[in-house]
Amino acid sequence: MTWICRCEIMNRRFAIIGHRAQSSGKLNLNDLAGASGRIDVLARAVNTALFLSHGIREDSQVVLHLLGGPGPPRRIGFEGATVRGLHPDERAIAGQIGRVLKQPVPAIGQIVELHSGFWHSGGSLEQTLSEWHKDGVTTYTLDAEGEDVFPSIANPNGIGFVLSDDQPFSELELDSMHGLQRLSLGTQWLQGHACISIIHHLLDSD
Ligand SMILES: C[S@@+](CC[C@H](N)C(=O)[O-])C[C@H]1O[C@@H](n2cnc3c(N)ncnc32)[C@H](O)[C@@H]1O
User: Fold this and answer.
1) Which CATH class is domain 2-204?
2) What predicted TM-score, i.e. pTM, was given to this entire model?
């Protein structure tokens, strides 16, 4: 990777797509990788995006996109700055997700806070990107086949990254991300949570 410019510590956001992730109903915590539609991948991403060894990253936000049904897609957000009662344990994070799935999906763009720093909303990636755009966030797609350059970023409104789960982005998602720069962290496909760790490292370095 070519390193163009190291960045000051800055707010970072991660949008994770769960193509088969269950969006409503009763979540089986004993089968997160199977019947739940790879909710284990999403829980790992939340864990890596939000937790330090001892403490929470207040500069980090995660938005999960649960697209697997039944019913409409649901987004679940975790705000590092304000979230309370969340533990760095994938099963506990999945348990939090499971509690949300029992609630009706809010309207697209309606953000319903369930407790501090933990919310859900209707809509899919297009809605998240529109919200981030309004917030002035600079957003990139993470893609092994993208540009092997970490750009110079100095945006006080923060920086956002879109990652998929174990499946490639759909045509619809690629359309919504049209115009976003695609960043590669190397030619090998890594697991999503590993990419999040690398991004933290790059943004934390000075
Ligand atoms: C397990 S990978 C997905 C692999 C999937 N088979 C595909 O073709 O997209 C999960 C996500 O991590 C990110 N990712 C994985 N490896 C990457 C790399 N080398 N550079 C940038 N992003 C990467 C991408 O956002 C990818 O969608």
Assistant:
1) alpha beta
2) 0.95
